[in-house]
Amino acid sequence: MVNFNFDEFKDKLIKQLDFPSVYMFKFIIESDNKKLALVEALFREESEISTRTSSSGKFISVTSKQVVLNVEEVITIYKNAQNIEGIMAL
To answer: What's the whole-model pTM score?
Structure first.
């Protein structure tokens, strides 16, 4: 998530979504239980989280559906995700 322009992303979200809304987050990480726990900790307990391991077993995709009340909630999750080494957002 290097050089991500949050201002442009925020503008797009405001134009495309009505809040509150269910938002789907997607991340890819290396297969590592610690990283998986860090990604899962980004979301509230009531979020619907699913994972899928790549065919090679080297990566895990994490998808979370969560109700967000405003665009700032979405931005906060992506900003917090930047602290996880090697994470890729889709």
So the answer is: 0.90
